[in-house]
Design brief:
Its cofactor is pyridoxal 5'-phosphate. This protein is α/β, with parallel strands linked by helices. It has 2 domains: 3-30 and 279-406, Lyase, Ornithine Decarboxylase, Chain A, domain 1 (Beta Barrel); 33-275, Alanine racemase (TIM Barrel). 29% of the residues lie in helices and 26% in strands. It has 12 helices and 21 strands. The strands form 3 sheets. Strands 4, 14, 15, 16, 17, 18, 19, 20 and 21 form a 9-stranded mixed sheet that branches. An 8-stranded parallel β-barrel has the order 5-6-7-8-9-11-12-13, surrounded by 6 helices. The chain has a 3-stranded antiparallel sheet with strand order 1-2-3. The longest helix has 19 residues, at 207-225. It binds ligand LLP. Ligand LLP is lined by residues 57, 60, 78, 101, 161, 198, 201-202, 236-238, 272-276, 311, 315, 369.
Length: 414
């Protein structure tokens, strides 16, 4: 689904990637509409019969065409800034299906979210709850709140994307969360609706997720005994994908395990998947410009860099890199590196590939945390984004121009 090789040529749905690169240039992100729809459908399928909401984590890929596609398939959204909220609204998403996560929500962000009527604030500290109470009081509304619990479990993922350990900045430890919830019930403009957690990303083992769930359930039961009724549990995102040979849990298995753990409790479920919806629905196309041999390495110098796709440089993430069509060169080991002036600017190391100058490469698994993490470092305009729907390509983001980059900068007066 989405990206397939036909006679050794890479196709995005019905279109040859070489033709896409010809038309839109490189580097260029290419997404498959069908692939993202299918990934979301797995969640819907597994949750049939429950009261639930799948809130796609906007941060994973926030292009408004992506949000529009998912909104049309019934997705809600997990946002972490008012900017993401405006994207959801611009994409036609329903604010009533939005949950707002993040450790620093400014009062103006809270105000806007309350005005458009979001589903829930995932509150991450006592101080934040106080500010939300006062913003909601100003507007004379009640803010729906879920408290983000930090369950202190080791998600077993890269330390930079592990979020559920006591030492992390996220959420509130269980004891403190209980106290916070009690306090919240006394606040006039706060309405407690749920508990949530998100323990990390690219999880390939579901046991930490289920451990965290058990802790939330203990809290739900204890709160119930105190007369505080929790309506929903939001288990965050985190399900990993296969980039190489990882074996992440199937969404269906994970959700079946969650449903079983709930027993007969009357709880709605919210999930905030990002990566598992879009990672494998996107590739980054980049062209080899030069080949360069040194005593130590063979370098393929390509036109995408760490500013376009930072995951290898930042997390030493391994992503699959393949030529999009065959050529006659002898396969050998290459370091695939970009134009940015940093030794950390690599996309892949020691990859066995048949390359020539002009070869088009596809970086697979680039649909999540790809374009959204790109920057203008080295004054490099950000890449174009194209969505493929069957045999039709849609330019969903124009390539930036140098003019775009200089806009808003000013010289000093003479
Ligand atoms: N909910 C919350 C509160 C989150 O912080 C995140 C991701 C998600 C949901 C979505 O998690 P997912 O289903 O995508 O794992 N840039 C990193 C990943 C950072 C994830 C941050 N939080 C990477 O490229 O690996």
């Amino acid at each position: 689904m989405g990206f397939t090789y036909r006679n050794e040529r890479l196709f995005a749905e019905e279109l040859d990637c070489e033709a896409i690169a010809e038309e839109y240039g490189t580097p260029c992100y290419v997404y498959s509409r069908a692939a993202m729809e299918a990934a979301l459908a797995q969640y819907h399928q597994a949750l049939k019969g429950c009261e639930y909401l799948v809130c796609y984590a906007v941060k994973a890929n926030s292009n408004i065409a992506v949000l529009d596609t998912l909104a049309r398939c019934g997705a809600g959204f997990d946002i972490v800034s008012v900017g993401e909220l405006e994207r959801v609204l611009a994409a036609g998403g329903d604010p009533g299906k939005v949950v707002f996560s993040g450790v620093v929500k400014r009062p103006d962000e809270m105000r806007r979210a309350l005005q458009v009527g979001i589903r829930c604030f995932n509150v991450e500290s006592a101080a934040e709850l106080e500010v939300l109470q006062s913003v909601a009081a100003e507007l004379n509304v009640r803010a729906p709140v879920s408290v983000r619990v930090n369950p202190d479990v080791d998600a077993g993922t890269h330390p930079y994307i592990s979020t559920g350990l006591r030492e992390n900045k996220f959420g509130v430890a269980t004891d403190a969360a209980m106290a916070l919830l009690r306090r919240a019930t006394t606040m006039e403009n706060i309405h407690i609706t749920g508990l949530d957690c998100h323990i990390g990303s690219q999880l390939v083992d579901m046991s930490p997720l289920l451990d965290a769930l058990q802790q939330l359930l203990l809290m739900v039961d204890a709160l119930q005994a105190e007369g505080i009724h929790i309506r929903h549990l939001d288990l965050g995102g985190g399900i990993g994908v296969r980039y190489r040979d990882e074996e992440p849990p199937a969404v269906a298995d994970y959700i079946a395990a969650v449903r079983e753990a709930l027993g007969d409790r009357d709880l709605g479920l919210v999930f905030e998947p990002g990566r598992s919806i879009v990672a494998n629905a996107g590739v980054l196309l980049t062209r080899v410009h030069y080949l360069k041999e040194t005593d130590a390495h063979s370098f393929a110098l390509v036109d995408a860099a760490m500013n376009d796709f930072i995951r290898p440089a930042l997390y030493q993430a391994w992503v699959d890199i393949q030529a999009t069509s065959p050529n006659d060169a002898e396969p050998r080991l290459w370091n695939i590196v970009g134009p940015v002036c940093e030794t950390g600017d690599f996309l892949g190391k020691d990859r066995e590939l048949a390359l020539a100058s002009g070869t088009l490469l596809a970086i697979h698994g680039a649909g999540a945390y790809g374009f959204v993490m790109s920057s203008n470092y080295n004054t490099r305009p950000r890449a174009a984004e194209v969505m493929i729907d069957g045999n039709k390509p849609y330019l969903i983001r124009e390539r930036e121009t140098i003019g775009d980059l200089l806009r808003g900068e000013h010289r000093l007066p003479q």
